[in-house]
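[Target chain]
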Amino acid sequence: MLLLCLFLSQEQNTSETQAKQRGGLQATIDNLTAQLVSAEESMLNKQEEMKALSRRVDELKLQNEQVCLYQAQVRQYTVKPALKTTCI
């Protein structure tokens, strides 16, 4: 009878320990899941920011090309006095 009581006591302690371990594991899983969700949201935000910056770079490249074109047109149509010739 004493052995049976000791065995049941050990089984109860083992069950309680396992329940605590499962609870700890679940808390760890929940914590890691929250970290993963946060990291994914952060990554999506960074991707959107990168897309916006990429579009801005493309806009600035176009503007730069236009400025270079305008500068070339100004040089083309600017007549320097020393090179000016008269046509009859």
User: Anything to note?
Assistant: Residues 34 and 63 are 44 Å apart (CA to CA). The helical segments are 2-77. The first helix runs from residue 2 to 77.
